[in-house]
Amino acid sequence: MAAWSNLFSVAHRYFGNPFIYLPVTLIGCLILAATWGEGFAHWKISRAGGITKKEFPAHLRQWRDVQNFPTWQLAWLWNDLEPQKGDTEGTTAYATFRLLKEHLDKGYIKGAARIDGSWLETPLSRQQLIDYALKIGARPKFLFFRRHSWIGNFYFKLAHQVVQPSEVNGYMELSNFTLSLYGYLKEHGQENNFTAEKEKFFRNEFLNGNWIAIGRLKIDGYLYEHEIIPQWKWEFFESAWAGANLGGDEFSDVRIKQKKKKGDRV
User: Fold this and answer.
1) Which residues contact 202 (CB under 8 A, 6 or more apart)?
2) Which residues touch 119 (CB under 8 Å, ≥6 apart)?
3) 170 contact partners, CB below 8 Å, separation of at least 6
4) For a disulfide at 144, which of 56, 76, 88, 139, Cβ 3.0-4.6 Å?
5) Other residues' Cβ atoms within 10 Å of the Cβ of residue 54
């Protein structure tokens, strides 16, 4: 304790001298100003396009209503950056563009075709891009704008029970079931009653909880993930071949499966 006391006494004696503490204070202020100035300069550079002078934050609200995108724009928007014409090399968009080209070569995006032998100007629709993003497990803000605020994300999780892609194949496609039902009725000479029998089956079996269904809900004209279709909605079922209209909501790629009952073998 005596050693610490002596140390503080010496420090107090020296720093109590204005010829000591004033230069030290001045040096400290200069270091602080230099550090703050460097941080501020870094911030200004990032706001002015980064080191490459190309990376500006995207105005996402202005892109919400755009329906089609040439491929060169996507590498930027995928990284929340405003698209800039020209080479992306050296920017954060570069790796995204390389990966996107690889996926296009492998046919990840259905209906995409080169323009004059290049992918640069290939137009891709918003729905094509949503399907692609879901396939690779991505949620870029310009496509999933509502999910990137905590309120929007909370509401979505509260109102939509999303099904993981790995679980989707565990359900039977509605179109296959529809064909089977039609074939069964035709064998018994009742194909003319197909629509009525189909609606009767769905209302009874799904409202009773014997079957469960998933589908891609159309939101603002676009289809997103598969989600569980609430049981109560089947009261409003309207016949559709591979989809379902339920209480004003439209579901596409509907898939169904029978619930396991107690005692059933796994």
Assistant:
1) 234, 237, 244
2) 71, 100, 101, 104, 112
3) 257
4) 139
5) 20
Q: What is the pLDDT of residue 40?
A: 54
Question: Which helix (H) or strand (E) covers residue 18, if one does?
Answer: helix 18-47
Please tell me the predicted confidence (pLDDT) of residue 182. 83
Distance, CA of 262 to CA of 242 (rounded, Å): 30
* Amino acid (one-letter) located at 216: R
Q: Which of 251, 78, 51 is nearest to 171 (CA)?
A: 251
Are 91 and 50 contacting, i.e. CB atoms less than 8 angstroms apart? yes
* Residue linked to tokens 């000479």: 189
Which long-range contacts does 46-53 make (Cβ < 8 Å, 24+ apart)? Answer: 50/91, 51/90, 52/90, 52/91
The predicted structure's pLDDT at residue 113: 93
Phi, psi of 244 (to 5 degrees): -155, 135
Angle between helix 2-15 and helix 18-47 axes, rounded to 10 deg: 80
Question: Could you give the CA distance from residue 229 to residue 250 in angstroms, rounded to a whole number?
Answer: 11
Distance CA 258, CA 210 (A): 6
pLDDT at 99: 95
Query: Cα(57)–Cα(42) distance, rounded to whole angstroms?
Result: 15
Q: Is 216 helix (H, G, I), strand (E, B) or coil?
A: strand
Q: How large is the C-alpha radius of gyration of the chain?
A: 30
Report the Cα 25 to chain-centroid distance in Å: 51
The pLDDT of residue 130: 95
Mean pLDDT of the chain: 79
Neighbours of 202 (CB within 10 A): 23
Tell me the residue length of the chain. 266
If one compares 212 and 147, the residue with the highest pLDDT of the two is 212
